[in-house]
From TrEMBL:
Signal is among the record's keywords: no
UniProt cross-references to Pfam families, sorted A to Z: Cu-oxidase_2
Plastocyanin-like domain residues: 140-256
The protein, known as: Plastocyanin-like domain-containing protein
Upper lineage: Eukaryota, Fungi, Fungi incertae sedis, Mucoromycota, Mucoromycotina
Leader sequence residues: none
UniProt keyword list: Metal-binding
Protein source organism: Rhizopus delemar
Keyword Ion transport in record: no
Length: 256
């Protein structure tokens, strides 16, 4: 318990708007169980604001979209290195989110809660490498940031404090190369899976590490990976803990 609290509470900001969720069919979701709609979760408030858009305009982007730092980063000289500054959407300040991380760890060699400094050798993301390198050697044209959020007392899970039923899809242009940045603002580990597209995990300095389907984030951790939008369609993007997915930690990614 001391290991979890000591590694987690630094840099966290406690806050407090939750939404209900209803699942719909999506490419890549066959074979999963427990996917019936959560229509009985009506009584929860609906979020009106989504993530911030730092791309074509300053201010807020409605509808549950992720934060996009494309133009801001381009003006600063490119996206060679992942951003490190925490940017919390307004939707994270509500009842669906009970904490936020402002100073997340970015190292890949953290074994996780209960496995630190106990004499065991643990395989971490830092030990994984794809010898052949990335299939797509282009750098990212823009950066999309998503925060893994929740309220453990209310059994609510989401991205950016917004449940799937209230969130607009994340839209990728066919052929583009995008960096996804995930920040775990919760006290639980989340394995995040983007269907249909490869995830090229990066080191903190932006170097290619390993090609994966599912990226696991420890509490208070910030990771980035590059995605090539080379498969048109509607793709599921969710936590692989099925309860978290059904409770709202789910987004649709549309490649068009």
């Amino acid at each position: 318990m001391n290991d979890m609290m000591g590694g987690m509470m630094g840099g966290m900001d406690h806050g407090g708007s939750g939404q209900a969720m209803e699942m719909t069919g999506m490419t890549g979701m066959t074979g999963m169980t427990g996917m019936t709609g959560m229509t009985g979760m009506t009584g929860m408030g609906s979020g009106s604001m989504s993530g911030m858009d730092h791309g074509a305009m300053a201010g807020m982007n409605h509808g549950g979209m992720a934060m996009d730092h494309s133009q801001h980063a381009a003006a600063a000289g490119g996206l060679a290195v992942p951003s490190t500054t925490a940017r919390h959407a307004r939707t994270e300040y509500g009842a669906s989110t009970d904490m936020r991380v402002d100073m997340a760890r970015t190292n890949l060699d953290d074994p996780g809660i209960g496995l630190r400094n106990n004499g065991r050798r643990v395989l971490t993301l830092a030990d994984l490498h794809t010898p052949s390198g990335p299939l797509d050697k282009r750098g990212p044209g823009r950066e999309v940031e998503l925060h893994l959020t929740g309220n453990m007392e209310r059994y609510m899970w989401s991205f950016n404090g917004v449940n799937f039923s209230d969130a607009k899809p994340i839209v990728l242009r066919y052929g583009e190369r995008v960096r996804f940045v995930l920040v775990n603002d919760t006290m639980m580990t989340h394995p995040i899976h983007l269907h249909g597209l490869w995830s090229d995990l990066e080191s903190p300095d932006g170097a290619f590490q390993v090609r994966k389907h599912t990226i696991t984030l420890n509490p208070a951790q910030r990771l980035s990976y590059r995605v090539s939008a080379d498969a048109r369609g509607h793709w599921a993007y969710h936590c692989h803990l099925l309860y978290h997915m059904e409770a709202g930690m789910f987004r649709a990614v549309v490649v068009e």
